[in-house]
Structures are given as structure tokens and as C-alpha cells.
Amino acid sequence: MRKLLIISLILSLFVADRANAQDAHFTQFYAAPTLLNPAFVGTSVQSRFGMNYRNQWPALPQAFVTYNVYYDQFLPQIKSGIGLLVNRDQAGQGALSNTSIGLQYAYEVRLSRYLSLRPALQLGYTRKSLHQDRLVFGDQLISGSSATVETLSVEPVGLMDFSSGILLYSDKYWFGLSQHHINEPDETVTTGLSQLQSKFSAHGGIRFKIRNPKIRSSKKDLVAAFNYKQQGPFNQLDLGAYIEMNPMVFGIWYRGLPIKKNGYDYANREGLNILVGYQERNFKIGYSVDVNLSQLGVYSTGGAHELSLTYEWANKRNSRLSKRRIIPCAKF
Questions:
Q1: Residue closest to 117 by CA, chosen among 133, 128, 106
Q2: In 3D, which of 45, 56, 40, 72 has the Cα closest to residue 6?
Q3: What are the residues whose beta carbons fall under 8 Å from the beta carbon of 12, sequence distance 6 or more?
Q4: Domains of the chain: residue spans and CATH
Q5: What pTM was estimated for this model as a whole?
Q6: If 0-12 CB within 10 Å is exposed, 13-18 middle and 19+ buried, where does residue 78 land?
Q7: Which of 50-54, 199-203, 300-304 has the lowest mean pLDDT?
Q8: 68, 86, 66, 55: which is closest to 24 by C-alpha?
Q9: Taking 60 as the threshold, does the pLDDT of residue 310 lie above it?
Q10: CA torsion sign, 311 to 222 to 290 to 88?
């Protein structure tokens, strides 16, 4: 049964005459900031390296696995951020894979002492491949043989991709907009048209200081944030908060649009996400688990698991300069 479900998931991505592909997503989207919005490039003290891993529906045989690696750098001399982003998404034991690389640039404009604006651009290249030898067809399940009579005309495809974003922020709040796949390239690997539709995202948040009058040195912050995105006919809202109790971070997120019904007339409730993080100076690590609230349930899919790692550093001169910079608040 699990094999049949995986087959249907994979085939639905490319056998239709016209398919609208969707991007992979991360629950810890602020731990992958440059993937969310290229305007986040260079919003660290100087240099930043990060990795993200997501295993979605692990109860199925590697249904969806996503990797993200990024590096970005702030250049104070020209008030700019530059970055490199590499992302890989695999579905169905790696039968369908996407590997993309992006070059990013953002310019920092100081509007006032406490307010900054950052417009940004991204140029990307994506290679999409379908590995026919990793697919399992119906006749193989029936006969129990490794051979199949099915034949597919499959060719890897490479495509250019353009994205942009803008970010307005202070030390207490931020709001950003991003538009990915502006040119909406065709990424089909078989026949027909598989268009990577443009994705719009609006995201933001606010930070509150939690003060304890009895303990002056107590440092606790409450961060409330959201991320809304729409790609073709699909849309999604992540809404939640996390509390920073140095060095630990605990958070909870809700994903879904309950006022909207999906194609099966069920309320669009996707998941409840729980986050645990640890931060020590320039190093951060986060783990999150998604609990399905949809009709798929938790036991049939296993939910989703994510791990994020981030490390930031700067030389002595730029470390002193960074203390006068306003840096967006989001961390996970």
C-alpha cells in the first residue's frame, strides 16, 4: 500500500498534460532566511553559514527529503549583502530530484537610526531529473519482477530562474515580501508542460522583551511571526511564536487556512509544529516536528522532521561595526 501511494505521488508530478509544480518548504523558514527571501542576505554580523534538512512523511519510503545549504556575507564598505544558495529536493526514494543553485544580492538602505530597507535580487539555475530505474510500476507489483513493460521518454532539464525580494526592519519588528520564479520556467522531464509557477510570500514578526523586575540580568524574549505564501492555486499560512530563554528556544506554529476548504471539502488544517532550539554565541541548532492535522493523519505519514544549523562569525573590526547595525530578529 505504501508503494502504491508513493507511485501515485511521483506520477502525479509529471504525467498530466499540464502540471503546476510547487516548491518544497521548511517549517523553520527563518532558519533558512535566504531561501525565504533574498533580502535576508547579509543580515548577519558579517559571515554566515547554514544548513537545513527536512524529512517529510518518513513513515513512507523517503517520500520527500529536502536539503538546503547557504552562505552569505555582509560587505560594510558597499552596504551590501551577497550570498550563495544550494537546494536539493528528492521525492520517492530519489526518483524525482531537483537541484538548484542561486546567487543573491541585497543592498542595505538606512532610512533612520532604527529603520532599514533592503531590496534584493536572485539569479538561479535548476536541474530537474527523473530516474526511471528507481520507479516501481503496477506490473512489477503484480508480477513481483524487477522488470517492467512501461517506457518513458525522460530527459533531465535545466532552467534559469529569477527572484526578488524586499525587507523592511528594525531591531523589534520586520516585514518582507518576496517573489520567486518570476519568469515561470517550464521544468517538464517528460511530455506536456510542467510550469514552475511564480511564488509570492509575505512574512514578518515582532519581538517583545520579557522583563523580570527581580532579576535584572534575565534575558527572555517572545517572538511572534508569520509567513503567508501562494503559488498558483495553492496557499498556506504559518503563524506562531517562540520564546528565547537563553540558551534554549521553545516554539509552536500552526500551519493552515481553516476558513478555506480544500478540494475534498475539508477545512484546510495542515499541521501543528513544535520547535526546540539551542543557541550559544554565534552557533544555533534547531529541531522541529510537524504533527499532521489533515485527513492524512500522523500514523499514516509520520509527520515531518527538520534540523537546522547556523554559524555566524566576523573579524574584530566588523564585529565592532555590527553592534551599530540593526539586524532582523528572526532566528528559527
A1: 106
A2: 56
A3: 19
A4: 2-322 (2.40.160.40)
A5: 0.83
A6: exposed
A7: 300-304
A8: 66
A9: yes
A10: negative
